């Protein structure tokens, strides 16, 4: 082990150095061009949608928790009704927002499908 | 010695890291300031920085393996006889290397965080990366300008190194510091997420969700690090305890306290969209405390058995801390309008308020520990007088606070969110309170017979009313602690049963109900299991009230009796390896009939490189009811006569068991759901999926391996410990109280009180004081003359008068003020909350356009229940 270990460290260090230099090169070339702009914009859009989905999941979780606590006798019937109604209203609102947001994606998807079909038609 | 110039290469790589991190930070800030196309560039720059950090660590590790003593750090912390595993542990054994190790771990966290961020939180991402890079830059600047691990000797290169301190040559060195560092460094990621949220103004629950898992990972590692630190202290340092309230121990406890407060408080924000300012403050404070802790350890400003040599890096930390505090404060003030709560507390009898009280106790403890830790510095600065704050102070003040915290751990789960009705709460509390009461009654009836009396002898740390109150609080602490443990266990048990009943009412069997309950509510029930772990640990802590110890000089074949045990000294035995000589003393534990029931072999190790520092190797026989802890103080090679100190420490094993339960609970609460894993597949197809979810699984495997290692290992498995060489004899409670207040002044163990320190100087001083007591002198007078002779720093606990009183009066006043403030503000919130609630209920009712989503919502709920 004593003989092998120094070599292992050299090999790992060498590999890491290559990765570091490669990453730096990639970083510089990406930084000097704006080819990634489209990706980032698309990411921003899907990011906003993901945030909504995540919020919806949190609300669904909370709805489940409230129902559970009510069943376990921790929340009175009246409080449960109020809380449940409020959370459901928020969740409905989010579902509505998600549906509205999906319109843009649908148009984009349809355009992509049409483009793809067009391509294959041309190839054929 | 290698042909190429490793020191130059190492320093060059540090420079490359600085350039790469600065460039990445600039790119990330550009991406966050309206040039989003720079984001991928910043991400690749981050990977490059992380890879350079790996190169730097590998180069230093290589230098250790090939004994490149041109490098000062290598020469100071290794020698040619050390095995390869200690050569690896030497990487973090000293100041300079441990800073590189800190930065390397930060690189690891940054790498995983960057991978995980791919395709998520695009607006937060640039600022997260920029913040992480700024922390890397700080540590690299520190190394390049003040603590370069690749620095060389100016003159001649030594032929051999000085070797790693014998105290550090044990398996704990391989696992305790890395896990503690992982805990410290881990808080950088949630902190970076917080800064990104503050800069971008996205201060809803998005950042909280993003930071959740990373905070849990950091908290789990910090808990593991603290637990392993206790084990190290107990098995290796050889003084008989597991926590000495040493400044460096406190330094790692401070972020744990604040981090724990944050993990509770953030639940209120997630659930009720409130306490936003408070959560920002707590998370920022946790990170600041990790830097403050590193500063305490590194600067050498406060005397500690753990600290590194006094150096000038403290000033860098002071500047950085100042920059952090001012920066965070400005950001918070700027974003205050966006940090307004959506809701208010609607009742003081609610889960939210219980969490606030939990935060109050945790921060109260933090303020106590912080003031006591820095008091020696403050005293020297304000009045030019050095003082010491010994463990006695902390033990007395922390006990009531700890029990309050424990009580809240049981109370919290019983109280409903938003508003608990009196009748519901009373019904929920009946069983746990009954169990707590029953434990107390049983202890009063049978405790003394079993060796666990409900009330122990009071020991005063001050000769004032405060001293008497504290002494009696500590005296009744065992019964209060055990009954509170019963209360919390019953409360958690009841929560499980209530949950199971709900599921069973829907037709599930008991076992299925329990499994599904736990698997579907991982976060909640994982948290409850953490509370159970804390209860077990408190059982272990309470056991310290019943410690018994005795010292005897024995010849081979002679026995000594302590508690229900008889210990026979059989023979001394010598062994050697290339690194050290080992002198063992074989001893047998005998039962009442004189039959052997176990064997122990306390020892002294004499290291080749440090012959003047023989280390004491304790031998421990551990059982659930008690540990038999044997220390060999001296052994005469010619007469074979040995001096032994035996300590019976009841219930200590429960601390380790509780720690394991706590970690398992933490892992359960982080365990990814099927939904998380599916989403990860969607996010990063066809790639290695580094993410918190997979990280948690990896963490669980790592912890299991670590715990298995700890389980297999035992005291003395190639370990080393303290430098004690004498013995401690205490004859009566007056001596115990007095010796506990006076610190040894031999120069080597300045922080140990005379009731613990076993060096020759302490032994002589005890004899002198014993004679004075026998002559009828007043203990207070003896204490005063000791103070006059050696100065205020010779007292383990500062007096209860003048500025010294500030030590407890300031944190107490802060706590009283805080609780008054919480109640006053809570009442105001309650009134406003009720109004707000009515308004929101009205607003909720007026949203009919979305009613068509009603059935969709039910479907979603059903699917969600199935997925989690």
Mind explaining what this structure looks like?
The complex is a heterodimer of chains A (124) and B (868). With 124 residues, chain A is mainly alpha-helical. Chain A has 3 helices and no strands. Chain A has 2 domains: 1-33; 37-123. In chain A, α2 packs antiparallel against α3 (77-123). The relative contact order of chain A is 0.06. In chain B, the strands form 2 sheets. In chain B, strands 2, 3, 4, 5, 6 and 7 form a 6-stranded antiparallel β-sheet that branches. In chain B, strands 1-10-9-8 form a 4-stranded antiparallel β-sheet, with no helix packed on it. Chain B contains 26 helices and 10 strands. Chain B is of the alpha+beta class and 868 residues long. The model of chain B is unreliable at 684-690 and 710-727 (pLDDT under 50). Chain B starts with 5 loop residues before the first helix and ends with a helix. The longest helix of chain B is centred in the middle third of the chain and has 40 residues, at 465-504. Among the domains of chain B are: 1-164, Four Helix Bundle (Hemerythrin (Met), subunit A) (Up-down Bundle); 547-651; 733-800. The chains are: A mainly alpha (124), B alpha+beta (868). At the A-B interface, α1, α2 and α3 of A face α1, α2, α15, α16 and α25 of B.
Please describe the topology of this protein.
The complex is a heterodimer of chains A (124) and B (868).
Chain A (H helix, E strand, L loop, with lengths): L3 H29 L4 H35 L5 H47 L1
Chain B lengths: L5 H27 L6 H27 L6 H6 L6 H6 L5 H23 L7 H21 L25 H16 L1 H13 L5 H32 L9 H26 L3 H24 L13 H23 L15 H33 L7 H21 L10 H29 L14 H40 L5 H11 L1 H22 L4 E7 L4 E4 L2 E13 L2 E11 L5 E5 L2 E5 L7 E3 L1 E4 L3 E10 L6 E9 L2 H18 L3 H10 L8 H21 L20 H9 L18 H15 L4 H12 L15 H40 L8 H14 L1
Antiparallel strand pairs in B: 1-10, 2-3, 3-4, 4-5, 4-6, 6-7, 8-9, 9-10
Helix pairs in contact in B: 1-2, 1-6, 2-5, 2-6, 5-6, 5-7, 6-8, 7-9, 8-9, 8-11, 9-10, 9-19, 10-11, 10-13, 11-12, 13-14, 13-25, 14-16, 15-16, 16-17, 16-18, 17-18, 18-19, 19-21
